[in-house]
Amino acid sequence: MAIQILFWFVSGLFFAIAPIEQVRSEHMKATAPVADVEIGMAVAGLQRIADAAPGEKIEIRTMLGRPVALVSPREDRPRLYDLSTGRQISPLPAKLAVQIAEADYVGDLRAAEVSLVTEESTEYRAALPAWRVDFDDDANRALYVAHDTGVVTARRSTLWRTFDFLWSLHIMDFKNHEDFNTPLLIGATALSLVMILAGIVLFPSRLGYNAWRRRRRSRAASRL
Q1: What are the Cα distances from residue 154, in Å, to 25, 128, 151, 177?
Q2: Over the stretch 30-52, which tens digit does the pLDDT of each residue have?
Q3: What is the domain partition of the chain in residue ranges?
Q4: Cα(first)–Cα(last) distance of the chain, in Å?
Q5: pTM of the model
Q6: Cα–Cα distance between 36 and 57 in angstroms, integer?
Q7: DSSP classification of residue 73
Q8: pLDDT per residue over 88-129, tens digit each?
């Protein structure tokens, strides 16, 4: 229990010191101006994809400065269309995912490696499949780009991985790093509470307070 209490204090101190914006790599996100989509362009683009399969929701936005439409069916995977040509561009090829990640990353650093992620992990639990784009910087940063939507869904770094590891120690979920209602955590917390209460009760004795009271009573009795 002493080791686990040490984990709680060390991880809690780290959480208090580390700025959450830097943990999430928000300070490394490029702030490019958002391009507007003209209504006429949107209408013409939707006409180009009029024969496409229907969807429950259609979102019009820009991607790398181009107008695109994201069609989200009720049960199937989303589809992304280039409104200027009417061509479906999802699933995204690796080259396009790299361009999206490099545009999202502040500075001129180029991607060092790209790989396809098809399963959840402790590092990534968002939309799947997704492209993982790694940058060779001092933080071992990796950006995840959704395969179907072209959205950057996660930004990871050494700081985030350290945060996540300490979080797993803090909540005692060593496998998935997300469940803070485990019986192990509840039991450890209850036992720690018992230890603290026992320590409070025994603290006066450890200071010699009880022995001092006995000596005082003995002297008082001898005077009588």
Answers
A1: 9, 12, 9, 16
A2: 887 777 888 999 999 999 999 99
A3: 26-156
A4: 49
A5: 0.82
A6: 20
A7: -
A8: 999 999 999 999 999 999 988 899 999 999 999 999 999 999
